[in-house]
Amino acid sequence: MNSTSLSRLSARFPARFSARLAVAALGVSAIALTGAAIAQDGGAAGGLILPDNPAFFAKNDPNHRKATVIVNGEIITGTDVDQRVALIVNASGGKVSDEELGRLKLQVLRNLMDETLQIQEAKAQKVDVDNSEVDQTFARIAQQNFGQDVKAMEAYLAKIGSSAASLKRQIRGELSWNRLLRRNVQPFVNVSDEEVREVLKRMQEAKGTEEYRVGEIFLSATSENRDAVYQNAQKIVEQLKGGGSFVGYARQFSEASTAATGGDLGWVKRGVLPTELDALLPTIQSGQLVGPVEIRGGFSILLLIDKRQVLTADPRDAVLSLKQISIGFAPGVTETQATTRAKAFADAMGAARGCANADEVAASLGADVVNNDQIKARDLPTPLQNLVLSLNLGETTPPFGSIQEGVRVLMLCGRDDPKADSGPDFEQVQSQMEDERVNKRAQTYLRDLRRDAVIDYN
């Protein structure tokens, strides 16, 4: 909720801004949908002894909104918290323990309190966000991330225990805060031309060295609460390794300024991060999670999103034209039989003499063919990326798959290599530096709002 790094982007690229809201704030994925379906399709009673017509001693009325906290006279209810938590739980496939759920609710409550303060401050400063703007952003999220209309998305949110109102309030909070910062903070942040030129010079000097795109969840700690924070960080790591959304957990738990962007630090070079984290970068692979690592002021959990060479063309950005040729196996086939057929299949495709003849050979083998003429190498599974990039035109990969899923090969039919990356221009570097400084001032601004707030707990 405390984001300023995308305030500029929200004005220039509203579609990208709304997509970030959907992915980072909503955090709903195909995995989450699957998890919800599994939960619904479980056993009738799961071994529980349940009467057909239970008599309840008390009613749990979802429409009864009990105040959890009052912030400057505005109520945040338990229902508000539960509906926001439902988004995060669903993004984690429903795999959240009772203990983790308790921590999550406390963090969501804190976020809702900050969100309330931000909306209140925007109103006090006469920075208005019309309902139509919120509705438009909500509709874009539905279209871009769900491929469905608004009513279908509203029904989906209700199904998982959340609501359209909860997500719209979060949208209003981000729009209000970003607009407030653009008016009251950003005009007073300056980055000199000399500072920008110095950054560009260092980038040119670093050409060819590796840089890393890193996600971070930072938890502050003192000598008094160090052990408790470390245990909390370990439990977050367990949730992430169990399929939890890194973006979702970063937004809710990270105390760094990058929390609002899902913990994404962007591309960093060696020597930028604290020494304890910097030493880890060359030792981890893309997609790997490490931590918690103790650094000055607390603990960090790192996710290496990607790595590349500075100002150098990345071969993984090559656009490929591929044929996928696959065969299946009859039920009851033995491993020996499958291996024999897979070898014959691979030999035949290897002798196909290029893509022009591939379809004919595939048909003679009873194989299926799928063409893709616009796929980047980096979009392939990691084990296949270097393998495909090492192929010459018309060559195929070794066969891969299983008896259950069938066996397939990829044949390279075309490749457009990327041009060398010229890096960000002067304006892009200046914009990034300004956003970082606005972000720091935004944190101070929010701390002042918290300090001056009148808060009543139930």
TrEMBL record:
Q: Which Pfam families match?
A: Rotamase, SurA_N
- Positions of the PpiC domain: 209-306
A GO molecular function assigned to this protein is:
peptidyl-prolyl cis-trans isomerase activity
Protein name per UniProt: Parvulin-like PPIase
Signal peptide coordinates = 1-39
- Entry keywords, A to Z: Chaperone, Isomerase, Periplasm, Rotamase, Signal
Instruction: Output the lineage of the source organism.
Output: Bacteria, Pseudomonadati, Pseudomonadota, Alphaproteobacteria, Sphingomonadales
Q: Residue ranges of region Disordered?
A: 419-438
